[in-house]
Amino acid sequence: MFTAALHTLRRSTTHVLLAAVAATASLTALPSAAQAQQFVSVKGKTVNVRAQPNTRAEILWELSKGYPLQITARQGNWLKVRDYDASLGWVHRPLTSNEAHHVVKARTANLRQGPGTQHRIAGKLQQHEVVRTLEKRKDWIKVRSDSGTQGWVARNLLWGW
């Protein structure tokens, strides 16, 4: 009786472990939108975005320092990336950084002294301008421009992390 109970326990444990492994595998197979979004930014002065994950592939885009990219797939040391507009292509992972940046989506964006429209405007940002992410509060992001100007921008005017 003890042996039969132990066998049943082992079989139950095996089924639970197999179910857990299957559940984990199905989570990793979900599309990237269902998983937590992973971002990187351009590390050096510029980076080439290529059609395929190799250095001989056609260059589709050249992006400047800090430009935020969302990772949609990985292949070896290459990352398939997109921006707020569309899928871009492949970048070599060592040419990216984990420093958070945003890009301005709107034609212009007010840079405010505090996180809210009640705060004075400290400057303006232009569409496609890349800014360093400093802090996040609800619907507002504190950023620093290349010129060193800091301020808060409404989150819906930016894209990145």
CATH superfamily of the largest domain: SH3 Domains
CATH class division of the largest domain: Mainly Beta
Q: Mean of residue pLDDT?
A: 83
CATH topology term of the largest domain: SH3 type barrels
Major β-sheet profile:
5 strands, antiparallel
Strand content: 35-45%
Please write out the topology:
Blueprint: H1 2-28, E1 39-42, E2 46-50, E3 59-64, E4 68-75, E5 78-82, E6 87-92, E7 96-97, E8 101-104, E9 108-112, E10 121-126, E11 130-137, E12 140-144, E13 150-154, E14 158-160
Antiparallel strand pairs: 1-4, 1-7, 2-3, 4-5, 5-6, 8-11, 8-14, 9-10, 11-12, 12-13
Descriptive report:
By secondary structure, the chain is an alpha+beta fold. It folds into two domains: 39-99, SH3 type barrels (Roll), CATH 2.30.30.40; 102-160, SH3 type barrels (Roll), CATH 2.30.30.40. The protein has one helix and 14 strands, in the order αββββββββββββββ. Strand 12 and strand 13 form a beta hairpin. The protein starts with a helix and ends with a strand. 25% of the residues are buried. The model is unreliable at 1-35 (pLDDT under 50).
Main traits of this protein?
161 residues, SH3 type barrels, 5-stranded antiparallel β-sheet, 17% helix, elongated, disordered N terminus
Question: Short description, anyone?
Answer:
The chain contains one helix and 14 strands; from the N terminus they run αββββββββββββββ. It is α+β, with helices and mostly antiparallel strands and 161 residues long.
